[in-house]
């Protein structure tokens, strides 16, 4: 007797690796203390750039956009778990100066991708 073919489709799969992922929209608003010097700000910005570009190269930070007119960004993360997202966000060098809103995402039925 032949068995029926079972096709498994993960709800959230990474488009390239096929691994199971969770996807989040994050909004990060940055507010440095008034007492912080321009040199300290520049140092934080350089550290942030290196950390952020590492995440982008690793595929965990899929996209980042500046919010027009604000020291804020919206970013799309594709990560293995909620725990991993928390590790990433709390590892940002600017984390102590950020207000972060996270929104979990799932597939839209009308999306063609
Ligand atoms: O928006 C910013 O400038 C802060 C920051 C968070 C990630 C990143 O690449 O930059």
Task: Describe what you observe in this structure.
The protein is of the alpha+beta class and 113 residues long. It has one domain (11-104): Alpha-Beta Plaits, CATH 3.30.70. Helices cover 27% and strands 27% of the residues. It contains 2 helices and 4 strands. The protein has helices at residues 38-58, 82-90, and strands spanning 22-30, 61-66, 72-79, 98-105. The chain has a 4-stranded antiparallel beta sheet with strand order 2-3-1-4. β2 and β3 form a beta hairpin. It is elongated. Mean pLDDT is 91; it is low at 7-11. Residues 28, 30, 48, 52, 64, 73, 92, 94 line the site of [(2S)-5-oxo-2,5-dihydrofuran-2-yl]acetic acid (MUC).
Please give a quick description of this structure.
27% of the residues lie in helices and 27% in strands. The chain has 113 residues and is an alpha+beta fold. The protein is elongated, with a radius of gyration of 18 Å.
Order of helices and strands: EHEEHE
Number of helices, where a helix is a run of at least 4 consecutive DSSP H or I residues:
2
What is the average of the pLDDT values? Answer: 91
**Which homologous superfamily in CATH is the superfamily?**
Dimeric alpha+beta barrel
Low-confidence stretches: 7-11
The number of E-state strands comes to 4
Numbering strands along the chain, what is their spatial order in the largest sheet?
A: 2-3-1-4
Secondary structural class: alpha+beta
CATH topology category name: Alpha-Beta Plaits
Keywords: Aromatic hydrocarbons catabolism, Isomerase
Family: Belongs to the muconolactone Delta-isomerase family.
Catalytic activity: (S)-muconolactone = (4,5-dihydro-5-oxofuran-2-yl)-acetate
Enzyme class: isomerase
């Amino acid at each position: 007797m032949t068995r029926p073919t079972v096709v498994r489709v993960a709800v959230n799969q990474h488009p390239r690796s096929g691994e199971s992922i969770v996807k989040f929209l994050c909004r990060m608003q940055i507010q440095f203390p008034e007492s912080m010097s321009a040199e300290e700000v520049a140092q934080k910005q350089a550290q942030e750039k290196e950390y952020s570009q590492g995440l982008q190269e690793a595929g965990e930070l899929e996209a980042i956009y500046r919010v027009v007119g604000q020291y804020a960004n919206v970013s799309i993360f594709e990560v293995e778990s909620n725990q991993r997202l928390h590790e990433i966000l709390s590892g940002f060098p600017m984390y102590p100066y950020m207000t972060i809103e996270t929104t979990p995402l799932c597939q839209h039925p009308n999306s063609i991708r």
